[in-house]
Amino acid sequence: MIAAAALAGAAAALAAAGVAELLAGRSAGRVTRPRPSGLRTGAVGALARLGRALGPLAPPRGLADRLAAAGLPARVAPGEVMALKLGAGLLATPAGVAIAALAPGRLDALVLPAAPLAGFLAPDAWLRARTRARGRAMAAELPDLLDLLRIAVEAGLPLERALAEVARRHPGPLARELRGTARALALGVPREAALTALVRRCPADGLAGAVAAIERAARHGGPLAATLAGQAAAARAARARRVREEAARAAPKIQLVVALLLVPAVLLLVAAALAAAFLGA
Predict the structure, then answer these.
(1) DSSP secondary structure letter of residue 42
(2) pLDDT the model gives residue 170
(3) C-alpha 202, offset from chain centre
(4) Who is most buried in 109, 169, 242, 281, counting CB within 10 A?
(5) How confident is the model at residue 128 (pLDDT cuts 50, 70, 90)?
(6) Which of the two residues, 78 and 12, has the higher pLDDT score?
(7) Where are the beta strands (DSSP E) in the chain?
């Protein structure tokens, strides 16, 4: 049974590779202008090329914003990600065939479509995980950056220069995005457009409100330092609230570990000591 499943998986893999080669050879005679892409090397690039051989697939609305929030470079276009999803779905098909051959009963009817669907959706899951990780790191970084920005503004620096100085002296993903915003402002990009792009690329809680408050203060001539101080205090309070929530969620997990691992281990030690005492007696 296992040998049959392995043969079925190998046959499906060869069939998928053959289909991809045929589709790629169909367009080999056409001369096309190469497009810049960030998905051209390694296994990811191979999956993207495999997906491109299957044909174009229109990206969903909002995929470009999700790529920006995940911190991917601008050269990674939504069409390239869709090609990667197609390639991953095609590559997962042979694994689905092999697993379906081993599945008991009628589960093979569920495994066969589930494997390519899982491969197709795997890049989306990776994007969500990367966006959440960047958002947590940026949210933890936000209060300190706002405080430093307030100090720079109080020292007399304009907002554009203050952004550049603060970002240059602070590590972290949010500081890197601030450096890009400062470079865009230095090149003449309007402040509103540069700050909008910053919010688009930074999925940190509280950043959108801070940027909106900065824009209002700059537009109406309000005290920018006081606005930054208020936003830093709000970001710090939000960070403390997140820490308390994470600690509250961690308590049941710790109790579960204690109940499932530590308590049985202690009971086994006690049982071993009692058994030794009784047997020795």
Answers:
(1) H
(2) 84
(3) 12
(4) 242
(5) very high
(6) 78
(7) none
Beta-carbon-side half-sphere exposure of residue 238 (alpha carbons within 13 Å): 20
**In 3D, which of 221, 175, 216 has the Cα closest to residue 198?**
175
Measured between alpha carbons, how far is 158 from 264 in angstroms, rounded to an integer?
A: 63
Helix (H) or strand (E) holding 5: helix 2-26
Contact criterion met (CB below 8 Å) for 111 and 9: no
Most confidently predicted of 73-77, 90-94, 194-198: 194-198
What is d(CA 189, CA 123) in angstroms, rounded to the nearest whole number?
Answer: 32
SS3 content of the chain, % helix, strand, coil (to 5): 80, 0, 20
- Amino acid 245 reads E
The Cα 270–Cα 274 span in angstroms is: 6
Tokens 């540069």 found at: 194
Between CA 78 and CA 57 the distance in angstroms is 10
Examine the pLDDT at 94 and tell me if it is beyond 70. Answer: yes
Positive/negative CA dihedral, 100, 101, 103, 109: positive
**Are the C-beta atoms of residues 59 and 79 closer than 8 Å to each other?**
yes
By the 8 A CB rule, do 134 and 69 touch? yes
Burial 123-142 (b: 16+ CB within 10 A, else e): beeebeebbeebbbebbbbb
What value does the CA radius of gyration of the chain take, rounded to a whole number of Å?
27
What is the pLDDT, as a whole number, of residue 129? 94
